[in-house]
């Protein structure tokens, strides 16, 4: 979860009642304009006519699945990848193509006969990994060479804590169809449930039809708030100070991790996003779903890694830890408890739980 | 469209920023409570644990289709019925069982082998029809006898302009599974995009899983506004005065219709809802989709009736007219233009269009 301290306030919210009428399925035109301009500034050649406003970017996954997946369709995904995308793809009958850990090293042959490739190139969920420019080129080339549509999911790009290339992979495509989606849940506020999808010109009308069938149109009040927040002159400064606070939390989390997990797990320091991804050392390999139950009894919650894997196999002993929400003190305390549970699985918990 | 004069204002909107965090997929518990209490007061035995808050009731149609429809599934629908429900059911592969004009006269045999029966018993869209108590009993009995799930869509029940039974048909079921859904778009404001679904106890967890996959959870800001509006002590008085204004518009519309369409079409006076449903007389039978094009050139919009029919056949020469949105004067002028276009299809429109 993002930190609630970063959410906008409603002090100056003068909402016109006209936005309470039905609105266009595509979204508010002023917001579509801003989304297209921001993406064009990041190198993705697009116009407002290619933008669809969503009730959160989870909805884009549902719409892409509806348009592209038939029973038995093959989908190329990172391994691990966003578990709620896997759930939707499976629901519509997809089968997953076993891929390298990320799609930055895949070939056109691997993508052949895939309905699409789904990738989170910036600060991936759950691994935190950010594709290098070479990997971005490689994925784009593989999609172009195999004419495989690229579905790029990019909710975290604004949360970079180091200088790093976060340009859309879709911008590097020359021929392949593409769908790029973004979210305001991480950089603004999740409760607004607003995201957007931008796509190749000939795809948009299909997505608009599916969007209309799914829920007519996105929430207009949230669209109004997001538009005004994005165009607020103070927005860049706020975003920069948010990055600073998240960077400080990440660095403190890393220190705590070294103390508690130095002999227990391996991880890389994420250069952006919200997560550390830990692989437990060989002697501590467990199904972390069992660990979760015991951790919650001690007041600590985390995400088990297993559900992020599309196919069976090398999926045990991984956990995803969020560093943006808890205070430094709480995170430090939680990590100690978690490491203790992993190292002493049989120990009796203290009677005073919290 | 509802009349914008009826929308709530935001003068006293003190929104807590805590609602901007992620929320529960089921919806805000206080709002689920209120929804359950209101339905219990209308005779439907249910608790808050059976309620799912939706981003508009269109979303309920998508979720029900996902849960119940496989390719070639048979669905029982009224003829005509809500066109955007037909679109969704078709998308998921449904076939439609030819039914009497409404489901109040169907038998258990007709429903046998149907995945579910979809009905809008109160002030139906598009016909405006309200089921009699006998018809309600009949539909419930047919569902019970054939163990067919009933999907009851009820967005208009609060917009009654005469004293009439609007109790949920689901409340009359004894055995059949049921899904009841309602909306805040008509009685409150469409731009909030909020509705709800209530169902048999064992169905809810499936809908929650599908809801989470579709868009995680519903807009929390809208949930907050709806909760505070519904529990506002002035709400019943506001609703009553809204009914009075809509009733006045309906009555004025009826007078205008008699003037312009008395020799052109047949219709019944709706006892609630937002629509008049006209069947053109034999000599004026046309595909009203062609009429729409010419009407828009003259500044008049209406809904052609043809798309509301699930199957080919007796679908020509029907139109749906909304009486809640336009002023009495504008409605009167629009009806004159429309009748003129129907009676003189070859006439050259005046050069000054509006």
Could you please describe the fold and organization of this structure?
2 copies of one chain form a homodimer. With 354 residues, chain A is α/β, with parallel strands linked by helices. Chain A has 10 helices and 11 strands. In chain A, the strands form 2 sheets. Chain A has a 7-stranded mixed sheet with strand order 1-7-6-5-4-2-3, with helices on both faces. The two termini of chain A are 22 Å apart. At the A-B interface, helix 2, helix 3, helix 6 and helix 7 of A face helix 2, helix 3, helix 6 and helix 7 of B.
Short structural description:
Chain A is an alpha/beta fold and 354 residues long. Helices cover 36% and strands 13% of the residues of chain A.
């Amino acid at each position: 979860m993002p930190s609630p301290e970063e959410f906008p306030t409603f002090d100056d919210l003068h909402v016109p009642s006209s936005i309470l009428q039905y609105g266009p399925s595509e979204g508010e035109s002023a917001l579509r304009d801003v989304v297209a301009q921001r993406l064009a500034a990041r190198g993705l050649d697009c116009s407002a006519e290619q933008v669809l406003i969503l009730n959160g970017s989870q909805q884009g996954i549902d719409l892409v699945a509806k348009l592209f997946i038939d029973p038995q369709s093959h989908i190329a995904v990172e391994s691990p990848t966003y578990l709620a995308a896997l759930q939707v793809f499976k629901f519509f009958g997809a089968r997953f193509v076993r891929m390298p850990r990320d799609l930055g090293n895949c070939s056109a042959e691997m993508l052949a006969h895939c309905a699409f490739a789904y990738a989170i190139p910036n600060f991936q969920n759950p691994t935190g990994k950010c594709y290098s420019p070479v990997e971005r080129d490689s994925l784009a080339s593989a999609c172009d060479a195999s004419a495989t549509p690229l579905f790029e999911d990019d909710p975290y790009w604004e949360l970079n804590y180091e200088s790093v290339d976060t340009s859309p992979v879709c911008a590097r495509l020359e021929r392949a169809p593409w769908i790029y989606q973004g979210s305001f849940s991480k950089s603004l506020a999740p409760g607004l449930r607003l995201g957007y999808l931008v796509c190749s010109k000939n795809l948009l009308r299909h997505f608009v039809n599916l969007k209309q069938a799914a829920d007519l149109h996105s929430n207009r009040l949230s669209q109004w708030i997001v538009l005004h927040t994005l165009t607020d002159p103070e927005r860049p400064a706020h975003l920069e100070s948010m990055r600073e606070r998240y960077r400080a939390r990440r660095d403190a989390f890393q220190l705590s991790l070294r103390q508690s997990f130095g002999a227990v797990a391996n991880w890389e320091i994420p250069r952006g996003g919200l997560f550390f991804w830990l692989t437990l050392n060989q002697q501590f390999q467990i199904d972390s779903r069992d660990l979760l139950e015991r951790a919650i009894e001690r007041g600590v919650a985390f995400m088990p890694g297993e559900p992020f894997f599309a196919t069976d196999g090398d999926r045990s002993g991984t956990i995803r830890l969020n560093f943006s929400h808890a205070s430094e003190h709480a995170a430090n305390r939680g990590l100690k408890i978690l490491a203790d549970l992993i190292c002493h699985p049989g120990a009796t918990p203290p009677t005073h739980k919290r």
